[in-house]
């Protein structure tokens, strides 16, 4: 049986430099996009511990849900703010495990990956020129008028490009906690503080491994009806578990529902729930 730990796994997903750039088939065909706008396969790079008896690790599910859009590449000209999301894995027996992921961007240090991205751009630009080169008669009219849609589109297409001699390439990476309960706020703080420790010029008070070990092996689940306070990298983290007589744990801000859907849609959704209508939420 589960020993009642706060978290079961710490997972790292991202670019596997050994396998290189593999198109992400689950994201659909997107070869018409510039290489920086395409999605590539992400891999589970590491997990700690390797496995726990009460919660077998599902590598395919965790890898896909940690980075559902696959790997993303950007340059220094793009915004690279970290993004947080959560997910649920429901097994055949109905049991659930919860995941919380923080995705950020780090500089690509592999020369092979940078060269591969540059090659993809050379191929993309060559194919684009072939597809959009006007016939001879159109070329003459373009040169006489000084205006050609193909040329203007080509310039626009190459605006979001990558030049290995000029640009710095960044790739998305993800750190994730797999937990038996949905302590969203606490997990978000843990991951944000770990990311801050990695990117900070000053080293954290203790080695990062000690904080990961602490969250996996030394922080227990709070008893029902009690709260728990434990130490993060830079400050305390608090989570609270409702008692058996209270509503189930819902550790997500209701404010975000109103921001995303609007007041009228929330009222309509609540009405449908009370009337027991079937509800389908569709999202990209």
UniProtKB/TrEMBL annotation:
Keywords: Guanine-nucleotide releasing factor. It holds the Pfam family uDENN. Gene3D superfamilies: 3.30.450.200, 3.40.50.11500. InterPro entries: cDENN_dom (IPR001194), DEN5A/B (IPR047278), DENN_C (IPR043153), Tripartite_DENN (IPR037516), uDENN_dom (IPR005113). GO terms for cellular component: cytosol; trans-Golgi network. GO terms for molecular function: guanyl-nucleotide exchange factor activity; small GTPase binding. Residues 24-284 form the UDENN domain. It comes from Brachypodius melanocephalos. The gene is Dennd5a_0. GO terms for biological process: retrograde transport, endosome to Golgi. The keyword Magnesium does not apply. This is DEN5A protein.
